TrEMBL record:
GO terms for biological process: proteolysis. Keywords: Glycoprotein, Hydrolase, Protease, Signal. This is Serine protease EDA2. Belongs to the peptidase S28 family. GO terms for molecular function: dipeptidyl-peptidase activity; serine-type exopeptidase activity. The lineage of its organism: Eukaryota, Viridiplantae, Streptophyta, Embryophyta, Tracheophyta.
Length: 288
């Protein structure tokens, strides 16, 4: 019976991972226009290496601006930090409510190496050495200075500083907090939602909490699914990745992370069936 339950869980995980991957692609490619205040793209000529006095290479970094609520000339500027994903525009969320209330301009900068803001066409190990939170913080500082100067130019003035506030969620939330600490002269404040400011290399406590939140029955099933996947990965990894529609993840560690992330999303973000914590609510996944 236990093996059957594990097999059912295995099939469920395949179904869910396929749905998770598809939903993420759909969110990135076909978001409705009402989800964004603007999707009009602008470009900033960003420094590749902020810490080298000899490397003067630049790359194009994508950004967006929304000025409909801006109180000219002294309104605040809200800098919304995009994190570890493509940035498709300025979202129509609570920040837009705040912008209207306080007469703020809203700008958002895509993180280096994500979306259309990659300095290189190939992500080799050598090319990835410029991908770091430290470089990202200085990206934000350079962009902040550039945008303030360009705004002053538009308003035909010099040496005027609008009040700046930075916003971020999760990793971007950490950047928001760190930006406030690193550049207190460039911002009046920051809002770091779920900011992961304490970086831990082997953060196994995250998965521990997922197990506790799922409950003992679901936790046992997820553990058995993981064991089944590990065995199949060792014997026929290519066929297994095909089942999960994840053939692009040709590194075992990446594939196992994808599997763990799928389980975490299910526990964190989806309603769970009250009688069986490992059976997803039919309204969410359309399975029983």
């Amino acid at each position: 019976m236990k093996t059957l339950v594990g097999f059912v869980g295995f099939l469920w995980m395949i179904h869910f991972c396929n749905g998770l991957l598809s939903s993420r692609i759909d969110r990135l490619s076909s978001s409705s226009s009402s989800s964004y205040l603007t999707k009009d793209v602008f470009w900033f000529n960003q420094t590749l290496d902020h810490f080298s006095p000899y490397d003067h290479r630049k790359f194009q970094q994508r950004y967006y601006e929304y000025l409909d609520s801006f109180r000219i000339p002294d309104g605040p500027i809200f800098l919304v930090i995009c994190g570890e994903s493509a940035c498709g525009g300025i979202s129509n969320d609570y920040i837009s409510v705040l912008a209207k209330k306080f007469g703020a301009a809203v700008v958002t900068l895509e993180h280096r190496y994500y979306g259309k803001s990659s300095p290189f066409k190939s992500l080799t190990t050598e090319n990835l050495k410029y991908l770091s939170s430290k470089q990202a913080l200085f990206d934000l500082a350079a962009f902040r200075q550039f945008y303030q100067e360009s705004l002053n130019l538009k308003l035909n003035r010099t040496k005027i500083e609008n009040p700046w506030f930075v916003f971020g969620i999760s990793y971007a939330g950490a950047l928001s907090a760190w930006f406030r600490l690193k550049f207190p002269h460039l911002t009046c404040g920051s809002l770091a939602s779920s900011g992961v400011v304490n970086a831990i290399l082997d953060f196994y406590q995250y998965d521990q909490q997922i197990g506790e939140s799922a409950g003992p029955e679901c936790k046992a099933i997820l553990q058995e699914v993981t064991q089944l996947v590990e065995k199949r990965l060792a014997s026929d990894g290519e066929a297994l990745r095909t089942q999960f529609d994840a053939t692009v993840l040709n590194i075992d560690g990446d594939f196992m992370y994808f599997l763990a992330d799928a389980a975490a999303v299910a526990v964190n973000n989806l309603k769970i069936h009250p009688s069986n914590p490992c059976v997803a609510n039919e309204k969410n996944l359309q399975i029983t």
